[in-house]
UniProtKB/TrEMBL annotation:
Cellular component annotations (GO), alphabetically ordered: mitochondrial inner membrane
UniProt similarity note: Belongs to the mitochondrial pyruvate carrier (MPC) (TC 2.A.105) family.
Pfam families: MPC
Protein name: Mitochondrial pyruvate carrier
Role summary: Mediates the uptake of pyruvate into mitochondria.
Alphabetical UniProt keywords: Membrane, Mitochondrion, Mitochondrion inner membrane, Transmembrane, Transmembrane helix, Transport
Location of this chain's protein in the cell: Mitochondrion inner membrane
One GO process term, biological-process aspect: pyruvate import into mitochondria
Membrane topology, as annotated: Multi-pass membrane protein
Keyword Membrane: yes
Entry annotated with the keyword Lipid biosynthesis: no
């Protein structure tokens, strides 16, 4: 156990590198998005949420392409992408962008 912990500590993606601490810090984006799920859709910024979606997609690609591959960063941004897409859909529904076709037909 101690040798595995020592090997991880000294690995190229271990806690002595930015390959570890960058993703750990980025989990804050995921936590903030999850906390915002309880807020009303009117409080969601569509522009900022869209930017966060693009940001997460770009950094998922970066995490996959960088050597050594950073699976912690990839999982962090994949989680953030899921949270932000959910927030974006809540914002779009709240602003009437994703209304049902039958609702539009009945209002005419």
């Amino acid at each position: 156990m101690a040798s595995n912990l020592r090997a991880f500590g000294n690995s190229p993606v271990g806690p002595k590198t930015t390959h570890f601490w960058g993703p750990v810090a980025n989990w804050g984006f995921v936590a903030a998005g999850l906390m915002d799920m309880n807020k009303p859709p009117e409080m969601i910024s569509g522009n900022m949420t869209a930017v966060m979606c693009v940001y997460s997609v770009l950094f998922m690609r970066f995490a996959w392409m960088v050597q050594p591959r950073n699976y912690l960063l990839l999982s962090c941004h994949a989680s953030n992408e899921a949270v932000q897409l959910r927030q974006l859909s809540r914002w779009a529904k709240g602003n009437g962008y994703l209304s049902d076709k039958k609702n539009e037909a009945s209002s005419k």
